[in-house]
């Protein structure tokens, strides 16, 4: 079998079925910060799938990927976190996808590094990226994977400084394990097995 034959078998075809959006901020100064956990997780998923998130459109960068036989978009909005909804709503509208075809991956300070939590819907909980998506979609009903980044060192610590701070070295390995869990969760969720993913990974 030639390389091209193999590519034909694994390259996406048919209609887009899901958008998996990882939230973060573009730019070198934001790399490996807690608030960019969504970006980092989607990059990890792309690496596992053998695709590169390098196509520019929809106010973001994206990749077209085949996940368990379903054609999916891996999206990283480049609008900066607070305007994430601009990118997400644009791509859903373009592909005429309902809100239940969206999975958003983002950082959560209420979970320790290495932990993830899956939700079918919910409020923004103070997360400005999720707030923007809810505002522009007009609904809280979309799938989420929350990635733990740990709580502030003490209550008076500035939240922006915390989430825009870099991960501690020992947390990077935990984040890698969490990204593996997120990938497995995505594989389950796109096949209507969200409940199974929740039972397996929610802590």
Q: What does this molecule look like?
A:
The structure is a single chain. This protein has 203 residues and is α/β, with parallel strands linked by helices. It has one domain (3-201): Peptidyl-tRNA hydrolase (Rossmann fold). Helices cover 37% and strands 20% of the residues. The chain is built from seven helices and seven strands; from the N terminus they run H-E-H-E-E-E-H-E-E-H-E-H-H-H. It has helices spanning 3-10, 37-49, 84-94, 128-137, 159-163, 169-189, 194-201, and strands spanning 18-22, 55-57, 60-67, 70-77, 102-108, 116-119, 143-148. It has a seven-stranded mixed beta sheet with strand order 2-3-4-1-5-7-6, with helices on both faces. Strand 3 and strand 4 (70-77) form a beta hairpin. The radius of gyration is 16 Å and the shape is globular. The chain starts with a helix and ends with a helix. Mean pLDDT is 91; it is low at 1-9.
Q: Which labels suit this protein?
A:
203 residues, alpha/beta, Rossmann fold, 7-stranded mixed β-sheet, 20% strand, globular, disordered N terminus
């Amino acid at each position: 079998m030639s390389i091209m034959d193999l590519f034909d078998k694994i390259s996406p075809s048919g209609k887009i079925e899901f958008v998996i959006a990882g939230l973060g901020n573009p730019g070198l100064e934001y790399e490996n910060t807690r608030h960019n956990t969504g970006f980092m997780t989607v990059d990890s998923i792309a690496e596992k799938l053998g695709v590169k998130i390098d196509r520019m459109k929809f106010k973001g960068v994206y990749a077209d990927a085949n996940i368990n036989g379903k054609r999916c978009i891996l999206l990283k909005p480049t609008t900066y976190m607070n305007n994430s909804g601009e990118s997400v709503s644009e791509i859903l509208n373009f592909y005429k996808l309902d809100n239940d075809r969206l999975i958003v991956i983002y950082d959560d300070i209420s979970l320790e590094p290495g932990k993830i939590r899956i939700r079918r819907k919910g409020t923004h909980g103070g997360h400005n990226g999720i707030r923007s998506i809810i505002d522009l979609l007009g609904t809280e009903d979309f799938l989420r994977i929350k990635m733990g980044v740990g709580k502030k060192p003490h209550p008076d610590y500035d939240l922006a400084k915390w989430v825009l701070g870099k991960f501690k070295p020992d947390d990077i390995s935990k984040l890698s394990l969490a990204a593996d869990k997120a990938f497995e969760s995505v594989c389950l969720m796109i096949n209507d097995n969200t409940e199974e993913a929740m039972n397996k990974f929610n802590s």
